[in-house]
Structure formats: C-alpha cells, structure tokens
Fold these 4 entries.
Entry 1:
Amino acid sequence: MTSTRPLHLAAELAPGSGRAEPGPDTAARTVALARLAEAAALDFVTHDDSFARPGLDALAVLARVAPETRSVGLVPTVTTTHTEPFHVQAAVATLDWVSRGRAGWRIEVSPTGAEARLFGRRPAPPTTELWQEAGEVAEVSRKLWDSWEDDAEIRDVVTGRFVDRRKLHHVNFQGATFSVKGPSIVPRPPQGNPVTVVDATRPAARDTAAHHADVVLVRASSAEEAAGLRAELHRAARAHGRDPGRLRVLLSLTVDLDAYEGGPGALAELIAGWHGGGAVDGFHLVPAVPARDLERFTAVTVPRLVERGLFRVAYAGADGDGGAGAPTLRDHLGLARPVSQYATTGARP
C-alpha cells in the first residue's frame, strides 16, 4: 500500500561534509548549490560545521545565502558545546529574520579534548552529558524566542516607544552548566521558533532528538531498520508528552551518483519504496561531490518523484519574491507556527 504522507527532501551543501578548506569561491559555490536545491523545491539545505576542522562558520555562510534565495529552508549546524546559549539563539533568530522565516538549526556537540582545548574553559564531558546540555540549550532557546510576544514591537515614532515592555518576559532558566535570565535581544522570529534538527545517528543523541527536535536525521542500512528507528523516536517523543505526528524523521543518505548501481534513477526507486512503506518521512541527501551529485539529484531523481506524484512541483503558496506571503520552512514541513508560551499563560515579568 502506497503512503499518502508528504515526502520531505533535503540536501547537504558543505564540500566533503565540511572537511574541505574554504576557497575564494566558497560563497558563490554555496549560493549556486542552494539555488539548485530551491529550483527543485527541496524542503531545506544543511551546511555542516565543527570546531574539529577548518572552515567557514555554517551559520554565517547560510546568512550569506539567505538574500540570494527565496524559498528553500536554511539549516546550519550549530555547536552547543563551548558556546553561549544566549548568543546561539540570537544568531539563529537573526537568520530566521534575514531569510524571512526559512531558518532552522542542526544541533551538534563537541566531544573531543582537542576541541575543548581550543576554548580552555573546561575539559570535554562525556558525550551523554553533552547531549543533555544540548537539550537544555534547545529548551532555553525556545523560551528566549518566545520571550518577545508577537506584538511586542510598537515602533511608534511620535512617542519614541519601540517596544511594549509588558510583552517582554524573563525566562529565568537554570540548567546544569549555565543560566539565562533573558529576555532575548532579538524580536520573536517570523516562524515563532526556527526549526530544530537533530542528527540521531548516535544513540546518545536520540533522547534529545525525541524531546526537542522538529526534524530528526537517522541512518539505516534497510527500510526495516529505518522504520524501527522511527518507531523508537515516536515512542520516546510520546513519553516526553509530545505528539509524534509533529516529528519528521528523515533518512540521511550519503550518495555517489557517479559510482553505484542505477545512479539517480535507482535512488528515486529507493526513496519511493522506503517512503511508501512508511519507513521514513523523507530523505536528507549527503552528496559525495555536492556540485556533481546535487545537480544529478535535482535534474533526474526529483523529477521522477514528481512524475509519481510523490513530491511537489513547486513550493506551496510561494509568491515569487520571498516577501511576507512566502512559505516558511515550517510550511514546507507541515509544522504549525507555535504560540508563544508566555502569551498563552499570560505571564508578566
């Protein structure tokens, strides 16, 4: 029986998963790849990053891509270890503003001693503790994004009032390794909360993913294994009081479309089969050679999925200029814009 669930597609842009040295053409190259993904109406693109290797800051790179694109979602990897949660959330919120509601962030941790020595603040804790900390960063980020109610900005030139202080909220968050008072220095993002993505390939990350992620990336060698991981994540999300129907599970798949059997056409068959059988909600393509493999994926694989009626021809509701009526990343993923938790409770600072 073929699934009628929407198929979600995403792609990685960083060369060699972020391991290559940046070159003078980095910005132009990344913009060109993002535009390829956008022309094929992919849900979002990711850009890997790590303190463990040289390269440009992924968040800054996608901030550069934002004005050069109109609809595709932009999801940089953001490390929550050795960074300040307040500044991290402000940067992600700013990306959501400059992209007009197309931002997400892929949470990552830094588990090695070499990375810890770059900062000199503390030794590297066990990975399990780092993912617990990452979950707290995700939690406080949502609180800070909500700390401005949607109508907190007044911008009254006559009176000189920019904001209604009654609609700003102190979050007063105390975590195991940090505390944040708030409110944020950035108004509430266009999406309310930018989309949170967690790679749950490692078991240590799975509880954080089930508790905090909107999109979870997994790796599996069979449809049965993928379906088992999806069911596991759904059970864990339910245990955290979440609706599993609001969780999107994507298979992260490294592909070399120049060297395995069948090429882009066979990839379309695999995607259709695994998605149709309910194993995953979509696929996150990690190209062996982005410029080559992403072009083949968008030129051959995606059109075959469109022909089958499995994927969109264009972004729903796109107005063509990236303005206020343009779709957000949450729209692409079928996720509702959350209401501010402080507006809902009527809390006042």
Entry 2:
Amino acid sequence: MPGVCVKVACVGGGPAGLYLSILLKRRDPTHDVTVHERDPEGSTYGWGVTYWRGLLDRLQEHDPESARAVEEHSVRWRDGVAHVGDRAARHHGDEGFGIGRHRLLAILAARARELGVRLEYEHPVTGANPPAADLVVAADGAGSALRNRHADHFGTEITGGRNHYVWLGTTKVFDAFTFAFVETGHGWIWAYGYGFGPEGSTCVVECAPETWTGLGLDRAGEAEGLALLEKLFADVLDGHPLAARSSGRAGAPWRTFRTLTNRTWSRGNLVLLGDAAHTTHYSVGAGTTLALEDAMTLSAALHERATLPDALAHYERARRAALLPVQSAARFSAQWYENLPRYIHLPPQEMFALLGQRHSPLLPYLPPRLYYRVDRAAGRLETLRRLKRRLGPTIARTAQARRLATQEEPGRSRRPDAVPAHRG
C-alpha cells in the first residue's frame, strides 16, 4: 500500500467492505483499518447469496482462512430444475454454491477482528460526516450516502428495469437451483430458488407490471401478498411458507431493478466499491462475487502502486474491463425475462436450454427455435462454435452503440438520480 495511505476507513460492513479490510491487514498488519456499519452486528437484509467455484478458488488465493470457513458453511448443487406449469426439465451443470448472507458476514467479521480490524457497528456515516482517513472507501451499497453527496462528480446514472420483483426466504431447502413459472389470468409469474443452508432457501419472485397489478400485488399487504405467492408456488414449495426480510427491518417491498453506473469511481481520497460503484441484475447471481473481486483488485492496487491516485486509477481500469462481459450478460438476462412470452411456450427441454443461454447477445436476434437448433449444432461442430462466438460480441457491440446513441438523442434526460438507501 502506498506509504501515504496508512489509515483506511471502510464505510459499509457488507461483504465488500469487510473483505477489503481483511486483505489490507493481511498485506500490512501495521495499517489502521476501521469498518463503519450503520446497522447492529448480526442484522442483515438478505437471505442467501450464490456463487461459483471460480470465486472460491480466488478466495483461497487471497485468504485461505476465510475461504475455508466460507466453503465449510456453504451448500452446493450441480443441477438446475425448471418447472413450467405441470412440466419440468432438469439439467446437470456447473457446481454452484449458496451461503446465508448472515453467515458470510459473520465469517468475514470474525476474520477481520482476528487480523486487528476495528468494526464499529451502529455507526452511520453520511456524506456530510465522512471519517478522517488517508483513504475512505464507500462500500455502503447502491444507495451510498458518500457517493450521493457528490453524484455530479461521480456521474451516477440509473437505468430502470421493467419487471417487478421481491426478495423472500422459505424454509423449503431446494436441492437444485430451481426455476418455477406459473401462468395466471394476468400473465406469467416466476420464482428463482436456491438453498443457502439447512435452514432454508432464497426465493426471488418476479413478474411483468401488468401481472403485478392484475394479481393485486401492488395493493396487497405483506401477509396477503405472501399468502397469494404461497398458493401460486405451492407445488415447488411443498407446503413450506414464504417469509419477508430475515432481519428486523419491516416490509417486503416489491421493486423494479435499477442498474447503476458511475462515470468515475473516485474523488480525491474517496473510492467506490461494490454496489456503490456498479450493480448487475440479480438474475445472473453475481453481485457478491463482483463486490469481493473489487476488494481483491483494490487491495492489490494499493499495495503495488506508488501513489494513491495511481492505485485508484488502476483499480478502476482493471475492474471496468472485468465487468464488461458480466454487465452484458446481466443486461441480456434481464431482457430475456422481460420478453418471457417469446420463450415460455417452447417444449420444456428447448425452453430450459434457452433459459441457460439467456446471457447470449445473439439470442434476441434469432427466432428461439432456430437459435436452439444452431446452438445444438454448434455443440457438435467447431466451425459453428467459432462463428457463434464471433457473431455474438459483434451484435452485442452494435446493439450497445445503438442504445447509447438513443440515450444521447436531444431531449432525452441523462440527469443523475440519487438512489434510496437500499443495499439489495
């Protein structure tokens, strides 16, 4: 870490802030590192998080102690199951992992303390009272108060999604990553479910706005809304209840996902980390992974670069490049669900195959059944595989250029918006 950066304040006690504090103290135990978290210790808004083997390998490289604890308390699966009405299809895929968010935070907090990090809970930090430090890390989520204080400088922009979603938990322990699509008189509604431990699973429910209002979910109270969802997804829940937040915070608000970007990630000695810098649609399950990878890159840059400005610039360049394919995948994944009627009536195996291919930039531009046949053929022929790999990014770049050009048309507003304080 540059010699001028001996005192570090991480604002936000989520995975990003805690893991950065661990890595900084591992590299140099003499540095003064404090994590400031507004909530009481042990409280969290979420249920479980999901990740893949690649992240576990990187955690092992950076801090074997915390990596072993994370793996020990994770559940794993290899299968994905899609239920469409009374039809179902199962696919054997890559190894996935789930861990309770509360468990992950407890592991990282214990490791940080062990290394000498000060953890200050119930200590809110606003843009008006930043801590005095050589480096202040805004790891306080998508609603970052530190970032919102200087939103014009950071160039914060929000792109709203179309569908409504709600983040729930259930005592049903799914043995596979489970998708359930249910047709109603007002359109389709669906859930993603994955286990995070012996006590239960995360269950995210999503639907189009016309389905949300048609079912009365926009007007229903919490208990009424949960009862309706339990009825709709009774087959996959096996009689288990759904529950709202796992912490003391009230309510189970439906939201529309908002993709957050920033023109720059630093201002003087203030730097953005994790969701404060960027968000990606929850359907790719990458939020926690990206936050932890941000921490890895920032800690390395602070250690290897001679000055703080150089370290922060290197961190931003490296992470922006790494994020591009994930952000593209997230954008196409969200669009796949927003255009669900295009795929939902395919035969189960075809529909499930395209569900797995929803990140593809080529899929929106081909008829679904044609894409399925091309994809199957590409799996057998190397020439077609190369063509598919070449065409996909080309089409994605063209679509991105058109999207940006449309956004920049005269009369279209690109005014930055402040984001409410939600770290989900």
Entry 3:
Amino acid sequence: MKVISFQLCCVVFLSLTILRAQPKKYSIHTVAFYNFENLFDTTDDVNTNDDEWTPKGAQHWTIEKYEQKLKNLSRVLSEIGMPDNSNAPVLIGGAEIENRGVLEDLIKQPKLLPFDYGIIHFDSPDKRGIDVALLYQRKYFKPTAYSNIPLRIYHNKVTPKEEEPQQDNDIEIKMAGNHRVFTRDQLLITGFLEGEELHLIVNHWPSRSGGEKASSIFREAAGNLNRRIIDSLQKINPSAKVITMGDLNDSPTNKSVKTVLGAKAKKSEVGEFSVFNPFAAMLDKGLGTIAFRDSWDIFDQIIITGSLLKADFSTFNFWKAGIFNKPFLVQRSGQYKGYPLRHSLTEVGFSDHFPVYIYLIREAK
C-alpha cells in the first residue's frame, strides 16, 4: 500500500508540474488601418469632384480597373495579421472611400467574404467625396454606438448664409475670414470585442495642400478634436480603452500628434490619461508608410490610451505594432522603385500608403 501511495503521489506531482509548464494560450486580434487611395466607383456623382475617376476622366477609370482595385485591396486586407494568416483583421479603419457602395463591393470579394465584415460609414463633406469607415468582423465585434464628428475649419472669403449648429465635440478654427474648408469627419465607434468594451476613432486629417507649415493649423485642429473625444470618453470611464487610427498627414513628431494629441513615444512616459504612439519608434528606425522625394515618413498611425498597456493580459491589451510592407506591395522598377505600388494609367496598383496594424491579446479563457 505504501508503494502504491508513493507512486500515486509521484503521478500527481508530475501532472501538476506538466500543467504548470504548459505555455499560456492567448486570443489574438489584429486592428488595422489602410488608406485605400482613391477607392472610387466608375459612376459620376454630381455632388462631388469625382470626374477624374470615371471612364471619361483623366484616370480612364473603367469597370475592369475598378474590379482589379477591389481584388488588390482584398488581398492586402486578408493578409494583414498573424504570419499564419489564420484570421484577417477583426477591425479595419479605412480612408479615401467614395461611398458605402464601394465598401459593399469590397467585402464581397472572395478573399474577404469568409470573414463576414460589417460596415460603419458616413458621408463626409469632403469636396472630393472621400470618407473614412470601419470594417468589422461580426463574429468578434458588436458595435453599440457610432457617430461622425465634424471638424469645422474656416478660411478666407465670405460668410456662408447659414451653417449647421455646432455640436459639443466640434472644433471650429477661423483664419483670416470664415469660409468653411470642408474636410473629413472623425468617425467614433463604441462596441464590444468579445465582450470587452472598446472605443475606436477613424481619421483622415487635413492634407498638406498649400505647404506643411501653412496647413499645420488644420491638422492641429484635428488633433485637438481627437483629444477632446478621448477626454470625453475618459471622463465617463477613466479606464476606457480607446484606439485612434488613421492617415494623419503628419509624422509622429509633428505638433498635431506629439503636442496637441499628446502622443508619447515611450510606454514609460504614458500616464493614466495619456496616449501611446508605437509608430514613433519605427520612424526613428527609418521605417515609413509613405514616401516622397526618396524620404520616408509615417502618416498612418494607430495610437492607444494607457489603459491598453497593462501587463495583465486577463483582458485585451496591446502587444505590438507593425507596418505591412510585403514585397508585392512595393514598386519594383522605375523612378519610384521601392515606393508603395500605387495606381497609374498603365497599372492598377494598391495604394500610395502601406497599411499599419496592432495586435490586441488576451489570455484564452
């Protein structure tokens, strides 16, 4: 009996040791952002400046080219994420989108159809008719609220007869007059990622048209609006998990991002209500999402609140970030060799931006 008891104790001890040695398993979800660069259909919209992207326009945008563009984008989106490609991004922020219709066409592509994406989209007042949107996998993310928050900018010329009323979160910038400069709204979404509340802001900040310095105030206004949205969410819940993503048309080191939004480059600098920008370190390493005159910069960024930086992975938290710049997305020859492979008159490319992504992980339950 003593021998049997001793053997039994050994078996129990070894079993417990093996269990303790088992590696932890995690649920991993990818959150991505991609500037789709001129995702237009071929139909002329009389209310926007989309004439260039029609069969008779400067780009000679035919149905065949449009369908190839959808195919190209779907390939990219389906491959962002884990190396084994076990799942496409659960959440995808997008920019330069003409309307909801092009998104409907996109999620029906064979490479994306299995993931059953839902769409959150509003028409923005941008004169070209380009908007931001969110695609989400219905299996994992359940949206509960969403709204488009206008960024109001006024510049030069005369006063419009009447402007719509300003909402609490709107930012109004006036420069040498009060003619409104129309730009993209900021899209705010609240929902539950496998039961955990998450807030997302999808952005496409004002461009550098007119010069980086002259137009900086517009992007600073966008950063201010972003900061106010985050502050309002944290006022309701100090532990709110917020992810703001987009084409910011500014670098992590520019005033709009670093000072106005207050995005920190190091985790150690992030306080209770601060935000962390993992793409600042990548810029220091010479990486980029967009190239101009052989100089790389990171305009596409995903920035998170400190509440997503906790070391306890019993809930979803930030793991790491990356730039998706696979070889098939890169121009292989010519003047722009090494740049993102964008559309030209002779070739339907992908985008002039590389996508960016972060991983959220949680211990498997």
Entry 4:
Amino acid sequence: MSTESLFTPFKYKNLELKNRIVMAPMTRAQSDNGVPTQQIADYYARRAAAEVGLILSEGTVINRPASKNMQNIPDFYGTEALNGWKNVIDAVHHNGGKMGPQIWHVGDTRSSADYPTVEMEKASTMTLEDIQDTIAQFAASAKSAKDLGFDVLEIHGAHGYLIDQFFWEGTNTRTDEYGGKTIKERSRFAVDVVKAIRAAVGEDFTIIIRLSQWKQQDYSVKLAHTPEEMKEWLLPLKDAGVDIFHCSQRRFWEPEFEGSDLNFAGWAKKITGQPTITVGSVGLEGDFMAAFGGQGTEKADLTELTKRLERGDFDLVAVGRALLQDPEWAKKVKEQNTEALLDFSAESLGVLY
C-alpha cells in the first residue's frame, strides 16, 4: 500500500501545506474558563512536529450568550483567551505546522443542567437583532484569527449546532427571511455569516466550512436527499466566499447518493469545483460514536482512502481519533511504518497529550 499521495503538497490561495493530512477538530473542553493553557499549545505543537499538514483546532466560541455548553470550551474572543491562542499558533509555527481555529456557536445543545446558566440560543426563536450580532461576532473572531497569525479558519456549520440548526427544517421553523421550506432558503444565515467573515479577513485568506448531513439530534437526517438539493445548499455558500468544504460523515467510504460511490466530499467537489476535505473513521475500523460508549476500535489500512484521493474525489483528509491516540500517526504513515500505528482506545478522549 503506497501512501505517497497523502504527502504531496497542497496550495490554495494563501494556504500552502506540505501534505494532505489535516488534524480534525475535536472538542477537548480543557481550557480553563475558556483560556487555552500551555498544555493546549503543547498538544497541538506535538502534532505539528510530527508531519500533520494542517491542524484545525477544537471548536472555539464567539462572544455570544450560551455560545458554549461546557465551561472549559475555549473562547475565541477577549484579551486573555486570544493571548492563549497566540501562544498556540506560535508554538505550531515553531514546529513547522499550519493551523486554523474552528469558530463555533453550539446553539440549542445543552450538555449539562447547570451550564450555561443563560438560556440557549435557538435558530427558531432568535430575534433579528440576535442574528445580526451573532453574524458580527463570527466576523470578529475570524478577524482575530487572521490578526493572530493563523493560516486559515474554519466555520463550524455541522453536527446540529447553531448554523446547522438554521439549515435543518427540524430546528428552523422561522417564517421570516432566515427560515423557509427549502435548504436554499434556510441557508441564509450561514451565507450571511460567510459574507461577513469574508469582508473581515479579505479575499486571500482561506475560509473552510464544516458541514454534515447527520445531526447529533438525529443521525439519520439528510439535508440534501439528491445532488440537486446539494447544489441548492452548497453553491450559495461558495458564492458567499467559502473556499474549502469540510464534509463530515461517520464513515468516509460510504456513498452519499445511490448510483455513485462518491462520498460527501466527492459530491461536494463535483458540485462546487472547490477543494474538499473528507473525514470519518480514517485509519480506524469503527466510527466515532462507539468511543462515547467507551469502545475502542482497531486500526485499518488506508488503501480505500488513498484510492479515492488519487482519483481526485477530494483534496485533503482529516484524521481525528487516530491522531488523538497517537501524535506520531502522520509521521508513521509517511515512513510506511504502518505496523507501528496504534489501535484506538476510548480512554484517549479524556487525555490531553
């Protein structure tokens, strides 16, 4: 099995990567009161030193009430938190890596009964004033990312969080300009967020958006049931300023629509013509949901992944749990030392190293 295709350079606009491997964003909730610590910086810098081409941070939240649902999720606003993130990006750059923050608002997803104490923000009930300030705060965090020296940024528009709650008819029951019966109509909020971010960071700074069909509220959901519906969803986002689509699915090898073996990232690239990132159980046999039940999973070979990359289905490959378990994962793959790759243990979900 050759993995050479994973280690070819990638260039798009201002973003130049030494290879195609991306560290997927994974919530750690270990930033004290929202401020990234030196341990966080070391955690990312360790992966940067071991051949990861691009690191996407854990979700970092904007300056809105209830933008996070756990106290130690990191903020991406305020002097103290931004100074912490400056330390992170400097450490990553020192080790030869590239990195972008994932900018996030959790919406109506309460993870515990006692935090936060303010009411969660819902796509269906936010006022227009709430919406406009939320858009402005996404743009403010994006500008901070560029000002701090990050190489790229990602908007979290997936997994049933706020932006995704606007996309989904199950959570967006609005009757104004931010609602609607079609996915194109319900994409208005995301489109406005992207436009505001693009205005804040300029034309040359690369914007990624992470999207998913499935929701944490319902794993069987599809926003786009056909390629035509996917066009209605993705093309307005492209026109608004999205450069790269990060297409989250639970298992990257599963086809998105009948009649083709293209996965989500493959269809997104075909439809938009933009670069895409695939993700979903890369390098592992089982999908990530089992980990939350305490189950590990065995490592898997990369033959199917590299086949799809080589035929041009997608441009970049996001690796989650495998890199969480083993900071040296990308380096071992590059050196063809696949025998040394580790199986995934669910215990690594709670450890920062």
